[in-house]
Amino acid sequence: MKRLARLSVIIAILLTTASCSKEFLIQESSSLDNFTCPSIDNCLSSKEKKASSSYIMPFKMLGATPEENIEKIASVIRKIGGYQIERNEVYLKATNEEVQLEFIFNEAAKQIEVRSQVLKQSFFSYNQGRKDIEAVRFNFFQGNF
Hints:
By secondary structure, this protein is an alpha+beta fold. 33% of the residues lie in helices and 25% in strands. The longest helix is centred in the first third of the chain and has 18 residues, at 2-19. It starts with a helix and ends with a helix.
């Protein structure tokens, strides 16, 4: 009987922990000057220092122009599904209920800078931003447009 009571308490704690979530304010910027993380709790950016836990690698360009690369990334995201997309020639923002992904062309480095910000973070969504960026990266470089 004591085992059953302990098991019930453990299950209740796990369910409470799993259902709790933390919400974050999101910083939007379509400028390279402000493409770093406002908070390291929920953000990854290719503009952070490489030694930082908030750093993620930028994308190398596959297409000849920034517009072509942004269009290919948009196609990958549409294929993955579940995102609202806003974009222009050099910037793309994709948002769903959990995460906001941003991609911006860096003229000086000839690469696509990336930023991921988790909107709501629960116990099981800790690494969601990194997973989503890496899914886009994999499909982008595999040519799954």
